[in-house]
Amino acid sequence: MILALFLVKINFFALLVFSNSLRGYNKFIVMGSILGLFFHSLGGFASGSFYIPYRKIKVWSWESAWIVGGVFSWLIVPFLAAWLTIPDFMNIIRTIDSDTFFWTFVFGLLWGIGGLTFGLAMRYLGMSLGMSIALSLCSIFGALVPPIYREMAGVEGDTISHIVGSTGGQVVLLGILVCVFGIFLCGRAGMMKEGELSQEQQQETIKEFSLTKGLIVATISGLCSACFNFGIEAGKDMAEVAVANGCDPLFQNNVIFIVVLWGGFLTNFVYCMYLNFSNKSFGDYLNASAPLKMNYLFAAVAGTTWFLQFFFYGMGESKLGNGASSWILHMATIIITSNFWGLYFKEWKGVSSKTMRTVIGGIVVILISVIIVGIGNSIQ
Fold first, then answer.
1. pLDDT score of 22 more than 60
2. Hey, where are the domains in the chain?
3. Quick check: 221 pLDDT over 60?
4. Integer CA distances (angstroms), 185 to 15, 166, 214, 257, 335, in order
């Protein structure tokens, strides 16, 4: 909670820094930016923290814990969120045109690969390094590909030419470059750590630490995870129908999440069942030697926390738009959170002061990028 408040304060600071320059702008735009920053802070905190309960699960194999948490994060909690916020949401899904449903679901399938490998990146690299590397590519593709797509397809919204040609857009692009540099520093610190510590020291805090496996899955995750943003773009017609039916625009994306996460669940379910079969771990779910009640509870908490990232992302996106600023703010706050948790769980224990300065420097640079993107988004 303290960390969540810290992130909120950082993002509010982005507004305070340039508040004097906003006096001539529409107050509704300014308030929308403030709320957008607030919601993205909460979403980033949830995403950067969701893996912590998985660390508490005992006896179960990774795939068993991951899919149980996934039932909550991709099926149960999204359904409840849509049921509470969008009137007759299942009818919207049933009656939407087939192309919209198809592409939203397909992007969900592709994103599912990213979500799956994201979990593996945490398994092999830890929260700090795993998230930093995976999200470096995710932030770039997720922020820039949608406006490029709008430009090429002639779809309404912020196009890449509009972003490049406007003062606010140029500031946002600067913020993206600064954020990428910060992510690079965090990743560089992880490389330094790997070179300084023995295998035994590395596995004191990350039991299955493997740099090679981790880099491979983190790279795949970064490339595929951006598809969630594309899924939101593909499913916009469903959100528009939801608003027309009386849904608060703040929650309009909850109906899109249902379809995207169906696709993501299918990908993860198939792979986890394959691992259950290969590793003969189907017995985990009823294993009397495991603390079953606590395992299911921790998996449920992890899954629910995971979904909250996109619940709040959808709220932030409704205020800032599904452009570069929304995605990069979401990615930046996740990285900041995960690196703080990495420090808290002593994932950097035993490294040199130079390595420690590098990772802290990366976090500071990412904080600066959040402020820059906040400024750019408010210059309309």
1. no
2. 2-378
3. yes
4. 26, 29, 17, 32, 12
